[in-house]
Design brief:
about 15% strand, about 50% helix, Lyase 2-enoyl-coa Hydratase, Chain  A, domain 2, 6-stranded mixed β-sheet, globular, 2-enoyl-CoA Hydratase, Chain A, domain 1, 12 helices, 2 domains
């Protein structure tokens, strides 16, 4: 299977939509899909015309069922280590990408599928979605950031419950515990994600990049250090053309036209 077929890429209105395209195996990750997704994400890093990314799965059944366990069964121990390192590094790249990433969770998201959603900035889930870090049921643990990102997002106690039991949560519970930002009906999920991306595209690109930087790095430190990170991120927006354009647009009662400069 050619690389471009395991991952579909569509660009429209300053947004890139990346679709995991292995529906027959519930869009599970093999080495080929990991590499394709990694290459795609990196290709957008310095594209000023792309303002946000949406990641979703092909078909109506699954977002991503995690690692391809059929492939896993054929791997030697050192190859399993290479797989885990590859997927962990990929999700970290997504989390710290200089553009917002929206996960359109269109169905089942288990193990690495939930970990991919956790690496995104915003998670909009279908009403039919089911999420869970189910690895302990296979006598392993989440290895692509799940033990770290889930407690940071939903709190230590609830994260331990979900990881220790390996149970799934539906869309309603995901929203209640803060794992999801919003729930959409299956037919409107992608449109709702595109609306969210369009709202982001109305804002200043440098400002969004710096805000994401400040949040991601500030949360990992104490408040005083976080405030210093915020100050430095703010200073980066002051000399931009976009900041002056925002003030001019406000004064002239019109929509600003931001260029990311």
């Amino acid at each position: 299977m050619e690389e471009e077929k395991v991952l579909l890429i569509e660009e429209k209105d300053n947004v890139a939509v990346l679709t995991l395209n292995r529906p027959r195996v519930m869009n599970s990750f093999n080495f080929e899909l990991l590499r394709a997704l990694g290459n795609a994400v990196e290709s957008f890093r310095f594209r000023t015309d792309i303002r946000a990314l949406i990641v979703t799965g092909a078909g109506e059944k699954a977002f991503c069922a995690g690692a391809d366990l059929k492939e896993r069964a054929t791997l030697k121990e050192d190859e399993v280590k290479a797989f885990i390192l590859t997927i962990r590094n990929l999700f970290t790249t997504i989390e710290y990408l200089n553009k917002p990433v929206i996960a359109a969770v269109n169905g089942i998201a288990l193990g690495g599928g939930t970990e991919l959603a956790l690496a995104a900035d915003i998670r909009i889930v279908s009403a039919t979605a089911a999420l869970g870090l189910t690895e302990t049921r296979l006598a392993i643990i989440p290895g692509a950031g799940g033990t770290q990102r889930l407690p940071r997002l939903i709190g230590r106690g609830k994260a331990k419950e979900l990881i220790f039991t390996g149970r799934r949560v539906d869309a309603k519970e995901a929203l209640e515990i803060g794992l999801a930002n919003a729930i959409s009906e299956p037919a409107s999920l992608m449109n709702d994600c595109l609306k969210m991306a369009a709202m982001i595209c109305e804002t200043g690109p440098v400002a969004v990049e710096q805000a994401k930087y400040a949040i991601n790095y500030g949360l990992e430190t104490d408040l005083n250090t976080g405030l210093a990170i915020e100050s430095n991120a703010y200073w980066a927006t002051i000399p931009t053309e976009d900041r002056l354009e925002g003030l001019a647009a406000f004064r002239e009662k019109r929509k600003p036209v931001y260029k990311g400069k």
